[in-house]
Amino acid sequence: MICFFWIGWASAAWSHSGAAMGGAAMGGAAMGSVAMGDDGSAAWRGELLARHIQVYRDPSRQLGIVEIEALPPEQWQSAPTYLNFGFSSDTIWLRLDLRAPLPEEPHLWLQRSNMKHVCLFSPAVGGWRKHCEGASEPLAQSYFLSPDLVFPLQPGSSRHYLSINTANLVFLPLRLESARSFQQAIQRKQLIDMLILGALLATLLFNLLLFLRLQIPAYLYYVCFICTNAAFLFGFLFGYNRLLPQFWFDILFGLAYPLNIFTTLFLLESMLGFIPFKTEDQLAYRILRGAQILFLLLLLLTFSPNASLLITAV
Prior knowledge:
Number of domains: 2
CATH architecture of the largest domain: Sandwich
Shape: elongated
Mean pLDDT: 74
Strand content: 15-25%
Number of strands: 13
Order of helices and strands: HHHEEHEHEEEEEEEEEEHHHHHH
CATH topology of the largest domain: Immunoglobulin-like
Number of helices: 11
Low-confidence stretches: 1-42, 306-314
CATH class of the largest domain: Mainly Beta
Distance between the termini: 31 Å
């Protein structure tokens, strides 16, 4: 059953990479290509999109769009190929210079990215129009009822600014899609998510029945492992907490790191129950118990006032 669950986890990671959603080939070749949408328009992603992006890091987190627009050109840097900035507490500004031909009704799509605060600045009469999305923003003001962050772009405008504020890992799987291609990709992604959820529920019910029939605690620990892992996947990593009422949204977002640690603890405990340790296997038993103690200590650290700083440092 453990192998069966990790198949579901691998499927989640696969959909997270965007391969299933865009119909692109996996690996570096897909990241550097122009994919054609279902309506015949070019979809920009990966290396192609990164070539049109420049980056500025603001350690003070205080600069606004006026100061950013006035920065001299030498302070802007080329964007990394896959827009992976690691853990950062800086405000990261992206300057997007997009040139034709663009997808029809272009949408800037930030996939599987549970960022706290992301704002798009688009040209407007007399200045810039600001629209914010993210984990700290109410879903009611979003353009789409989706866990992903989506920004429709104005036709004809070429320069946009994107500001990212978060204390998490800053990985930006950006794509530029046409409206039709975006809607179809979202439907495919949600279908994959529901298949993963169905596999998790089937595994959970099967192991729960085994526990009720055999009364072996390892099956109950495995059920707890599936529950906490599903809550982390769908409540944080996949961003579905944005679809919940504010009360439950705050709970799931605040418990993201503890849920991840509980998942590991329950998995280790179920392994200790499933694996028949013999006298000569005491070293392996002690290693698993030691790992549990380490994760318990890490769990205590997550509830400290400086939890986000400690986790970021790790």
